Amino acid sequence: MSPNDPIPSDSANPELPLNLERPIVFIDVQTTGPDRRTARIVRLSTLRIEPDGSEEFRSHLINPMSPITPGATNFHGITDEDVAECRPFIAYAKALHDYLDECDLAGFGIRRFHLRVLRQEFDSAGIDFDYRNRVVLDAMEIYHRLEPRDIDYAYRRFVSGEFDKTSGLDATVNAARAILLGQLTQYPDLPGDPTTLERWASEEETENYIDDEGRFTLSDEGDPIINFGKYRGHTLYDMSEIDPDYLRWVASNESFTDEQRRIAADAAEGIMPDFE
Prior knowledge:
- There is one protein chain.
- By secondary structure, the protein is an alpha/beta fold.
- The chain folds into 3 domains: 7-143, Nucleotidyltransferase, domain 5 (2-Layer Sandwich); 149-193, no CATH class; 216-268, no CATH class.
- Helices cover 39% and strands 14% of the residues.
- It contains 11 helices and 8 strands.
- The strands form 2 sheets. It has a 6-stranded mixed beta sheet with strand order 1-4-3-2-5-6. Strands 7-8 form a two-stranded antiparallel ribbon.
- β3 and β4 (55-61) form a beta hairpin.
- The longest helix is centred in the middle third of the chain and has 16 residues, at 171-186.
């Protein structure tokens, strides 16, 4: 059996107390770099669990057809030489698409990174990878809900020890400086100049904004959504059907900017924003 062959398992997994109605596939991708817009996959691993509990693991090294950054190699250990003789993603695309069809998806950080990179690879292969109607379980999202990150956590993570807020008037600002130093030290691939670092750090928060303040944004699936109030997360398509009066209220409310009011007024009439 080669390392790329599937590894079947006949035993059920009692450690996953989920009531599965269809298969769920855990996905992990290792890439050429951390920027999901340019990252190419160098290793793809999947663990498919059937409703009866049986499992199948697959892992493939993939030739990304582009260089792997030194930082990425330090992270996952895969070099350009390791993948030089491997097949490119397009060689696996059709079979992988069929393998994932009708399956829910799971992973750690899967929604923001893994699935976006995977969709880009499928797009390059000429295959539409649409996961909007599937369940996506992201263990990172669950983790952040269970254990919210704060300055105490960041201090332990990047400085070590406990942060003592009462140690002096300058305790918090010095802690922030120490945390930033720890981040730059532990992740040497981070941009070294403030402007580029600021742009990189804020990109995930602002790149999907439709208006300048992000009260209307794009969802992970590319749909315009409301990002405030009681209808947070609802698409403008749905709102134009279920509660256009709410959109008209936004359009008439001077606490919103002119741009936001225009977006709401248009959406109330079924006209979606031009965000291309």
